[in-house]
Amino acid sequence: MLRNGSISRGESRGLAAVAPVLRVAAGTLALIASANVEVPLVPVPFTLQVLALCYVVLALRPREAVASASSYVAIGALGAPVFSGHMGGIVRLAGPTGGFILGFVLAAAVGSLVLGRASRTRLPWVASAAASLVAMVAVVYLCGWAQLMVVAHLTPTAAFAAGVAPFVALDLMKVGIASCTFAAGRIALGRDGR
User: Tell me: the pLDDT tens digits for 10-56?
Assistant: First the structure.
């Protein structure tokens, strides 16, 4: 209860318990919104989901980042139209692009792990962030590439050419954008002395 304009300890703990849930919800909503920015390419469309996942990994704690990606996948698996093309359902996850979507969960875990380890080195924070996001994107590509080969009956080379190669330059730009803007925000807030 507010007393003299301050929050009691119990209320402070209650607010602290709600904060992670709100951060996970915000990360999930970012992934949902980013799927709606789509350039329809075949077999894999271009979306802003990798950019959103970059920000989720940089902004949230590791468990929160994984929970956001997992929530996004679960909501879509249940049939909500949150995947690109306003689609949802298990069929979409079992299709040619499903590996990329499912890869978001493992990618969030790997990106967060690399960020945690790299940020304890002497590297500038922006370099640690970029390294973690490159690892994150690589995991998304590996998961998507593997499923695309199986589902579309493509050779490894053909699956790479169709589902990975067209996106590498664009996704590296997203990594650069996310790393630099987040690092600039950290500097502005006085959180990065390097």
Answer: 555 655 678 899 999 999 999 999 998 888 776 777 889 999 999 99
Is the bond preceding 81 in cis, omega lying within 30 degrees of 0? no
* CA dist., res. 70 & res. 64, Å (int): 10
140: how many CB neighbours lie within 10 A of its CB? 26
Distance CA 179, CA 54 (A): 8
For 31, the enclosing helix (H) or strand (E) is: helix 9-35
Task: Give exposure, 27-52, as e/b (b: 16+ Cβ within 10 Å).
Answer: bbebbbebbeebeeeeebbbbbbbbb
Q: Is 30 in a helix, a strand, or coil?
A: helix
User: How confident is the model over 122-176, as pLDDT tens digits?
Assistant: 999 999 999 999 999 999 999 999 999 999 999 999 999 999 999 999 999 999 9
* H/E element, 38: strand 38-39
Tell the residue number behind the tokens 């998507």, with chain if given.
144
